[in-house]
Amino acid sequence: MAKVTYFEALKGASLAMKKRDLDPATADYLMRALTGFDQTQLLIHYRDSLPEQLKDQFEAAVSAYLAGVSPQYIIGTADFYGYQFSVTPSVLIPRQETEELVAWLLADYANQAQLTILDVGTGSGAIGLTLKKERPDWLVSISDISAAAMTVARKNAVALGVEVTERVGNLLTPFTGDHFDAVVMNPPYIAREATPLMDQSVIESEPSLALFADHHGLAVYEQLAQQLKQGIVMTNRLYLEIGFDQGETVQTLFQTIFPDAQIRIRQDMAGHDRMVRVIFNPGNGE
């Protein structure tokens, strides 16, 4: 049987991806992930024969991608804020926009040595564990309604060498009666009627529980606002990721329930509304 070189394997995979209108650069991503090579090392090996075991692994990975599986799920990891997180179909793949939410919170508390943080709907733990890595002295708690997601987050906490408080349950209820300096959440906010506009691979691969929300994508914001109003958890600030067209609606929702709060919408690097910060008692040194 004729040996296949790295270059030939990559070229064949890229062509197959192009035919399906998929990103051909994913071929390089998959190969680098499977080999541990950086781009330069991969180029050096271009004319070398692909080991048989690696060839089988690469072909299986390419087939999975062509079948609609996200590359991060195929490899089992995703990068976020300079850290590597394990991901499974039980959790959302961390995205670059969410890094900006983390950066906003870190910048707001740049000089705060001691802080208590709750990451709600943690998924892989990307937000909460990153905050703990960046600020080791902060006391970080994480929660998720999905026990399977919490298993992934727990694995990532061990891999990153951080200790956080973990609880399973709906939104704030696992921490009933507790007080946090800040609560942060990237909730499911995609309206179910937007499904036809979405990338099919996202719909088929990623957990619907972490993607979609009722009431035009606003249901979780509404539930969270009500839980905060009821005092299930007390906090000074709330940081939220939002859909690009939800800024004013989410702002109005929280302003109606918390008329004295100071609410700011922030855009992402692409210029879209992407984050909301709620300061509940702006007159008390906040």
Automatic annotation (TrEMBL):
Q: Where does S-adenosyl-L-methionine bind?
A: 121-125, 144, 186
For this UniProt record, the keywords arranged alphabetically read as follows: Methyltransferase, S-adenosyl-L-methionine, Transferase
Query: Where do the Release factor glutamine methyltransferase N-terminal domain residues begin and end?
Result: 8-76
UniProt catalytic activity: L-glutaminyl-[peptide chain release factor] + S-adenosyl-L-methionine = N(5)-methyl-L-glutaminyl-[peptide chain release factor] + S-adenosyl-L-homocysteine + H(+)
Is this entry keyworded Cell cycle? no
Q: Pfam families per the record?
A: MTS, PrmC_N
UniProt keyword Chaperone, yes or no: no
Return the SUPFAM superfamilies for the record. S-adenosyl-L-methionine-dependent methyltransferases (SSF53335)
The enzyme's E.C. designation:
2.1.1.297
Q: Which residues form the Methyltransferase small domain?
A: 105-195
* Job of this protein: Methylates the class 1 translation termination release factors RF1/PrfA and RF2/PrfB on the glutamine residue of the universally conserved GGQ motif.
User: What is the protein's name according to its record?
Assistant: Release factor glutamine methyltransferase
Q: Which organism is it from?
A: Secundilactobacillus kimchicus JCM 15530
